[in-house]
Write a structure and sequence with these properties.
192 residues; alpha+beta; 3-stranded antiparallel sheet; 12% strand
């Protein structure tokens, strides 16, 4: 990735974070990391590429965007800030994320399809807690009734092989997009 592409990816990541913070309830650090994964994962399933330009790591609580995770909280500044609230009973302290006044979302960085994707992620997952989102990233949307092997699990999450990268090919394994691309490369989808 050249410098121009890197800057554009950083602008897109910043705008996705701002969009999520503007449109979701009660945003914690963990919830933000999960929503970023869901945005990129769903974009990869449709296009083969992440929307943010981020690469992802396998970590204990699910996939995390590498640059955001490794550089926290610097990675969200100057457009957002985090604040930690004390733990209650047996819980961990909660780290909340909020926008800094004046932070602006730039919809010009996104296609109509990408805007629809962002809106659908917020609609579907935006009111969920980080705990529920963690279960979804580990075992799929229907984790209670029909758990599936997610890209996080395939890349080593269940085997506790943490800090490994999840590649777009890990995200695509078994997806309709992968079947479509293989069909184009090797013949019709019916032959797969």
């Amino acid at each position: 990735m050249n410098d121009l592409q890197r800057r554009k990816a950083q602008e897109r990541l910043r705008s996705v974070v701002i969009f999520l913070l503007q449109n979701c309830q009660s945003m914690t650090k963990t919830k933000l990391l999960k929503l970023l994964w869901l945005v990129d994962y769903n974009h990869v399933l449709e296009t083969g590429l992440t929307i943010t330009g981020e690469s992802y790591l396998v970590e204990q609580h699910g996939p995390v965007p590498e640059a955001v995770f490794r550089n926290w909280p610097r990675s969200i500044q100057p457009f957002a800030k985090s604040r930690t609230e004390p733990a209650y009973a047996d819980s961990y302290p909660a780290e909340y994320v909020e926008l800094v006044e004046g932070a602006q979302f730039s919809d010009s960085l996104f296609s109509d399809f990408q805007m629809e994707l962002l809106e659908s992620i917020v609609e579907r997952y935006g009111s969920m807690t980080s705990t529920v989102l963690e279960m979804i990233t580990h075992y799929g949307d229907d984790y209670q009734n029909n758990p599936v092997e997610t890209p996080w699990a395939r890349a080593g999450g269940l085997a506790k092989q943490y800090s490994r990268r999840i590649t777009p090919s890990d995200m695509l394994k078994g997806s309709e997009y992968e079947k479509h691309i293989l069909g184009i490369l090797y013949g019709s989808d019916d032959e797969l």
